[in-house]
Amino acid sequence: MHIAFFINDLEREHAGYTTTVLAHQAQLRGHRVSYLTPHDFILRADDSLCAHTRSLPKKKYKDSEDFFATLKSDKCKVEPVDMATIDVLMLRNDPSIDAETPWAMEAGILFGREAAKRGVIVLNDPDSLGRAINKLYFQSFPTEARAETLISRHATDIKAFAKQHGGNIILKPLQGSGGSGVFKVDAEAKSNLNQIIEAIGRDGYIIAQSYVPAAKKGDIRLFLMNGRPLEIDGKYAALRRVASPDDIRSNIHAGGTAEAVEIGKTELAVAEMIRPKLVADGMFLVGVDIVGDKILEVNVFSPGNLGSCSRLAGVDFSVPIIEAIERKVSIAAQYARRFDNRHLAIL
């Protein structure tokens, strides 16, 4: 199997990132692994789709650090490759990172669609990712599963929403990730509400969410694969993210810490409630952030912390993920690609 990982750029990758973990596991299982970025696609005059890919040498790597060091070295072969020869394209970029270069934000989606037309299995499904490129996708899940939300650029709307919820709300940009631009409004921050609205509103629409008190204990990142919680022998790919004392954001990149967590009936019920939508949209691998019985985020582009989940649980969750991808390639071959990409993505 030849699997290509689409990322924002190599400079912002890291040896501990989920993409590296998955790519390394694929290589360990004997597969050819390549990386590509928004700069790399070529649609030729004969309508063939190619890409300048960075392919890792087939050899035994000591660990993911060695694998990643080789990826960034001149030992990698960079050459144009016909996308039709690639079995799987895994879209692992974060579009919000490329907000200042709009052409790059949707490159993976646009060329992912073209790759799917040429028989490449694209994960997650690019058509559905196109609808999920901002947090408005979150509103398509059942109201019972998500915190009450208002989306507006008008200060009067947001202030009315805050009053309705006793002054305790969360404000964040419609587009963004990693906890960037997230503010908690309460009695102490009330006097700064105008400035917060103005600061977030400069970049577009504002999301106002009711504050869920259980958030004081942090949120739970839970991985879902093929619509169901990812697990190995009863151990779930999950962790609790706890914010630092001086920050409301529990994102690891924003200073939060990771702790082991038990997944119980509440979290499984939330996962089951959102499963039909994820399956219908061909969302193969998703990271869901849960507080109490509510989802706060659904990361369908580049869910992270898989390595931390594996370390805390004492199992390697990258194995069943690559096994599931191998199974999709096998199904596609057995059925002569009679399934469309959206269905194949979650089989």
Summarize it.
This protein is of the alpha+beta class.
Outline the secondary-structure elements.
Elements (H helix, E strand, L loop, with lengths): L1 E5 L11 H11 L3 E5 L4 E3 L5 E7 L8 H8 L5 E6 L5 E4 L10 H4 L1 H11 L3 E3 L2 H6 L17 E4 L2 H10 L4 E5 L9 E3 L7 H9 L4 E5 L8 E7 L2 E2 L1 E2 L2 E2 L1 E5 L14 E3 L5 H16 L4 E7 L2 E6 L6 H8 L4 H17 L6 H4 L3
Parallel strand pairs: 1-2, 1-6, 6-7
Antiparallel strand pairs: 2-4, 3-4, 4-5, 8-11, 9-10, 9-11, 12-13, 12-16, 12-18, 14-15, 16-17, 18-19
Helix pairs in contact: 1-10
Catalytic activity: gamma-L-glutamyl-L-cysteine + glycine + ATP = glutathione + ADP + phosphate + H(+)
Protein name: Glutathione synthetase
Pathway: Sulfur metabolism; glutathione biosynthesis; glutathione from L-cysteine and L-glutamate: step 2/2
H and E string: EHEEEHEEHHEHEHEEHEEEEEEEHEEHHH
Uncertain parts: 247-252
Discrete helix count: 11
The helical percent reads 25-40%
N- to C-terminal distance: 17 Å
CATH structural architecture of the largest domain: 3-Layer(aba) Sandwich
CATH fold node name of the largest domain: Rossmann fold
Shape: globular
Description:
Pathway: Sulfur metabolism; glutathione biosynthesis; glutathione from L-cysteine and L-glutamate: step 2/2. This is Glutathione synthetase. It catalyses: gamma-L-glutamyl-L-cysteine + glycine + ATP = glutathione + ADP + phosphate + H(+). The longest helix has 17 residues, at 318-334. The chain has three domains: 2-123, Rossmann fold, CATH 3.40.50.20; 148-211, ATP-grasp fold, A domain (Dna Ligase, domain 1, 2-Layer Sandwich); 214-318, 2-Layer Sandwich (D-amino Acid Aminotransferase, Chain A, domain 1). The chain has helices spanning 18-28, 64-71, 102-105, 107-117, 126-131, 155-164, 193-201, 265-280, 306-313, 318-334, 341-344; strands at residues 2-6, 32-36, 41-43, 49-55, 77-82, 88-91, 121-123, 149-152, 169-173, 183-185, 206-210, 219-225, 228-229, 231-232, 235-236, 238-242, 257-259, 285-291, 294-299. With 347 residues, it is an alpha+beta fold. The chain is built from eleven helices and 19 strands. It starts with a strand and ends with a helix.
